[in-house]
Amino acid sequence: MQQPPGLDGAGPVEADSLCERGGARHERRHHAYSYAVREPLPLPPHWDPTRVGEVWRVPYEERFADASRWREEHALPPAAQDRFRIAVVAVDVQNTFCTPGFELFVGGRSGTGALDDSRRLCEFLYRNLHSVTQVFPTLDTHQALQIFHRVLLLGEDGQPPPPYTLVSADEVEAGRWRVNPAAAEGLGLDPAYAEEHLRYYTRTLEEGGKYQLTVWPFHAMRGGIGYALVPALEEAIFFHSIARFAPAGFQPKGDHPLTEHYSMLGPEVDTDREGEPLGRRNQPLIEELLRFDAVVIAGQAKSHCVAWTIQDLLDDPTVQERQLQAKVYLLEDCTSPVVVPGADFTDAADATFGRFAESGAHLVRSDVPMAEWPGAIGEALAAAT
User: Fold this and answer.
1) Share in percent of the chain as helix, strand, coil (round to 5)
2) What is the pLDDT of residues 128-184, one digit of tens each?
3) Which residue from 210, 220, 253, 214 is spatially nearest to 348, judged by alpha carbons?
4) Which of 74, 91, 98, 276 has its CA 20 to 30 A from that of 182?
């Protein structure tokens, strides 16, 4: 995995982001926190941690009424009035990764990793409802015929590979793995082109320091129940939207058939061998996130989609040039690594997070009040009490 450059003396949040220009904005900010309580809020009455691992329908009308009452009871200001703006990026908090029994449940070494993470993330959002300005949930978005699903590949015996098979560039060159020509044609591709793409793709992954092509179980299938957000987290995000008048910024990713897409900010391989794009870098989202004073990241999985999202954010030229790494906070107890038969990514994920911290990002926990966090968040919220 590539490492972000270690920049000594990564500074705090830039002054421009903390003191926005514009008289009207300044006047609105002047009173924004005058009635907001900066201590963690209580958990709302509807919250039931025992249901985090269940699939159920969120009762929107009931939660609308509850959130409206909660706003009045706790004098919650509209998010647009926040003086210090905090974005929470919830990476792939979908049933397919977070609910036991679904296709790619991220159990971690404990076996209950993502389940525990979801509970902690829900409670973090509820307790910090008044401090979180906007939530950005990402949605892994797949179809059946994609390069990391077994239907697209055949082995020497003419059979598709089992889930969790690692497909190396050397094995593809040796003919051990090839593209299923019928599947290629189903995608409107010439089988010969698809075969060349597989060779190019696996080689490019390895040369770029990425994970080898992994054959994943069918997961996050667009339109399926696994694609949906975990209901408890969907409810918490909806509650935040109503209580703070703050729409969630949903970010689908990963529907191109010829590349993996772990990071929410860009595909694993940007172009095919002819230079045509395989999906596009989500530069508008990067620019939007950098308009916040701080960005908090959680979700699944720590070793894959979360790690590459953070990597892409920290590698962004604007972040590098203006040394904005200190704007990034990683909720370390709200994310877990992939642990599957034959592959345990725990140590690699921990080492990667260590490198992120060395580059200037902050490792934090959800059960520590945000006013006690290091850097700009702690300073801003402690000053508002």
Assistant:
1) 40, 15, 45
2) 999 999 999 999 999 999 999 999 999 999 999 999 999 999 999 999 999 999 999
3) 210
4) 276
- What gap in Å lies between CA 329 and CA 313, rounded to an integer? 12
pLDDT of residue 54: 98
User: Taking 90 as the threshold, does the pLDDT of residue 336 lie above it?
Assistant: yes
Is the pLDDT at 385 greater than 50? The verdict is yes
Residue 143 contacts residue 221 (beta carbons within 8 Å): yes
Domains of the chain: 51-142+229-384 (3.40.50.850), 150-214 (no CATH)
Assign 256 to helix, strand or coil: coil
Q: Please provide residue 127's backbone torsions phi and psi, each rounded to the nearest 5 degrees.
A: -70, -25
Strands (E), the chain: 86-91, 134-140, 153-155, 166-167, 177-179, 213-214, 251-253, 294-299, 328-331, 339-340, 343-344, 362-364
For residues 253-291, one letter each, b for 16 or more C-beta atoms within 10 angstroms of the residue's C-beta and e for the rest, the string is bbebbbbbbbbbbbbbbeebeeeeebbeebeebbeebbe
pLDDT per residue as tens digits for the range 337-371: 999 888 899 999 999 999 999 999 999 999 999 99
Contacts of 55 (CB under 8 A, 6+ apart): 95, 99, 225, 231
Q: Which two tokens stand for residue 16?
A: 């421009």
What are residue 277's DSSP bridge partners? 271
Q: Evaluate whether 319 touches 313 at the Cβ level (below 8 Å).
A: yes
3-state secondary structure 290-335: CCCCEEEEEECCCCCHHHHHHHHHHHCHHHHHHCCHHHEEEEHHHC
| Residue 181, token pair as written in the block | 């020509």
Q: Taking the CB of residue 131, how many other CB atoms lie within 10 A of it?
A: 28
Burial of 151 (0-12, 13-18, 19+ CB in 10 A): middle
Give CA–CA dist 91/309, Å, rounded: 8
The amino acid that residue 181 corresponds to is: P
3-state secondary structure of 155: strand
First vs last C-alpha separation in the chain: 41
